[in-house]
Structures are given as structure tokens and as C-alpha cells.
Amino acid sequence: MLVIIAGGGRTASTLAAVLVQQKHEVRLVEHRRDVLAFLHRELPTEAIHEGDPRQPHVLEEAGIRRAQVLACSMPDDADNLAICFAARTLYNVPRTIGCINNPRNAWLYDHQFHVDVALNQAEILSSLIEEEMSLGDMMILLKLRRGRYALVEEKIPADAQAVGLSIRELALPPRSVIAAVIRRGEVQIPRGDLRFEVDDEVLAIVDPQAAEVLAALFGKPKT
């Protein structure tokens, strides 16, 4: 898979390095001399394309006509939007990703500018803080289906509601699945008659609403 990355800041260079390690074909397009000096210390030379990504001929030289993904990480939101728009309308790139610099411009990163995924660091941080506060000690292990579901883990304390109850007896929300219960290092198959014990580690797949319900059942009671 060929991924074109427009802009060579820290976020872009880290993304490029990860993709290179994963054996993807990468072209990071950058024209600033000081940034290029850094990039050549961090990335293979073949992953760097020197030129201004705001210029269509530079993107063409980098191979945008056969790219599957374009990620824009320019320091100016207007440039990110313009490049995403051109990638789709001129070159039919299937997937575009735009990094938002100023949160006030987030509303512009939509289908009209052909931005498939908008990365807003302020929004991501605030949602993570809110999620961590609402779920107590429950740990999110993996996001699934673009964040609609999550694989979570909770270690049951002595005063949890679920202690002594079976899976069948718990009022589990509809969009939740108990995937496994780990007890004293051994995996217990989560059948309906399995009763929860103190220090059981419960793995579950949940949506955001179900996660809050399970956090209340398997976590410490809120005071």
C-alpha cells in the first residue's frame, strides 16, 4: 500500500516510521530545508520526497496517482484542506486523513473538502479524559469499528456488585459480550452459570453505554 504524507513534522515523521516498519510504501513530501535535515536522520531516503506538497506536480512525482491513502500534516489548516480536496477530485485517492491544527477549524474537515478522517488532538484528549473518568478502574485495551466498540478489562474488587453472581444472573446490557474471565492465571469460559469471584479479570466487548454499565457492575461502588 502506498501512503503519501504531506508535511514532515513530528507527527508525520513518526507515522512514516511506523508505516515503513510495517512494510508499507511511504512517500513523505516536504520542502523545508531544516525539516528535511531532521527527516533524513529519521527515515530511509527512499521514503522522503523533496518538494512542496502544495504543488500538484510534486504530488504527482511522489506517486499520488497510485496512492491508497493521503495523510495531510501541514502546519496550516488551509493547506491540509486544499491537499485533501485535490487528492480526491484530481487523483481519486480512496482515503484522505487531515490533521487539525486549530480546533476552531475542525468544522471545515468534512466531506465537502473530501476529508475522510479528521484528527483533532484537542478533541481526542478531552474524550480520553472523559472516558477514563466515567469508567473508573476499567481499562480500555483496544478500540474496534472506528471507536464504536472497545475491548475492556476490569479486575473485580471485593465490594463489586457482581461478586457471587453468575453471568446469567447479571443484567448485562444488550450491546455487551463477556469475552473471557481470567481467574488465578487460568482462562474460564464465560458460560451462563459461571459465578464471578474477587480478583477475577473480566474481558468484555462493549459500546460506550454498555461500558458504563459494566464498570458499575464489576468496579468499585461509587461513593
Brief description of this entry?
By secondary structure, this protein is of the alpha/beta class. It is built from six helices and eleven strands.
Number of helices: 6
Fold-level CATH name of the largest domain? Rossmann fold
The backbone outline, from C-alpha atoms, is elongated
Q: What is the total number of structural domains? A: 2
Order of strands in the sheet with most strands: 3-2-1-4-5-6
CATH architecture group name of the largest domain: 3-Layer(aba) Sandwich
Radius of gyration: 23 Å
Strand coverage percent: 25-35%
Task: Report what the structure shows.
With 223 residues, the chain is of the alpha/beta class. The chain has 2 domains: 2-124, Rossmann fold (3-Layer(aba) Sandwich), CATH 3.40.50.720; 131-218, Alpha-Beta Plaits (2-Layer Sandwich). The chain is 31% helix and 26% strand. The protein is built from 6 helices and 11 strands. The chain has helices at 10-21, 33-42, 56-62, 77-91, 121-135, 208-218, and strands at 2-6, 25-30, 48-50, 69-72, 95-100, 117-120, 139-144, 149-155, 176-183, 186-188, 201-206. Strands 3-2-1-4-5-6 form a 6-stranded parallel beta sheet, sandwiched between helices. It is elongated and about 65 Å long. It starts with a strand and ends in a 5-residue tail after the last helix.
